[in-house]
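[stage:ingest] chain + small molecule (phosphoenolpyruvate)
[stage:ingest] validated
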Amino acid sequence: MVIVMKAGASDEQIKHVVDRIKELDYTPHLISGVERTVIGAVGDERGKGVLTTLETLDGVESVVPILKPYKLASSEVKKERSVIRVGDSGVEIGGNKLCVMAGPCSVEGEEQILQVAHAVKSAGAHMLRGGAYKPRTSPYTFQGMEEKGLKLLARAREATGLPFITEVMDTAQVDLVEEYADIIQIGTRNVQNFALLKRVGKCRKPVFLKRGLATTINEWLMSAEYILSEGNPDVILCERGIRTFETATRNTMDLSAVPVLNELTHLPVILDPSHGTGFRRFVSPMACASVAAGADGLMIEVHQDPDHAWSDGPQSLDLPMFSDLMVRLKGHAEASGRSM
Ligand code: PEP
Ligand code: MN
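[stage:predict] done
[stage:export] tokens:
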């Protein structure tokens, strides 16, 4: 259920409703909007008090049932779109300005990450990406630089001012990754690793949740719900292609997920055309299409020498290609009423 407070309801009235929700054995989640506060009451409804009785309390406008299986992620609960602030970097995701995250698939060394970080920054990227823990299909391929990689990403942040996003693969790594990263990425393969989702739900950093190779939008939003229901309100969704019968591209980038998500959820949506297509020549057209479809930003793999990249070289843009893409994107952003 969602308890919609009247515009101008007092803090005292809100607190009273929160206390009543707890007494009825539900968990309250406060969502403060510009105009009014809504309170999500989440919990198993069987054998409990009736939340509709809250309708008579002072300051309450209405008590509305949530029809979707996900609640905190739902636009039924929160009509305003979420804008996620990335620490005190000044970067926001979900507002009018598009957010472009760019960098190599994997951190490979100090010189490499600094070179790419400086290049993507001067081309106009807002965040740096780079993997330190890599979920590779084969155990015999490069697995990432681990903590050393995190330290190098932090060096690159210091040198460029770009906040960074990096993946965490296991609950045991979360403390360390959270200490370094500005945004914590949950990769495709962990989209239904519920222990990991619950753990990052306790983090104080935003979580970037990639869609699974074969998860429906409903399942994906239920995964977001795992994070939100643990108390972390800052979840960003990333469409990165799904597995279909098509083999001409590495994955099938589901562009229609953008307008669908924009209807179903208030959470920001980022597109990753690098993993979405698997080929660098398809990245730019799909990036532009993502902006036209209503994405809040992009994640792009960029490498200074893609042919020698330690992972995902074929889909990585080189530095001039990335600069060109940023110029093209500017026009598309403007046509969609957004800024870069
Ligand atoms: C990545 O971002 O490099 C990555 C491994 O992504 P995904 O989980 O989408 O495959
Ligand atoms: Mn990659």
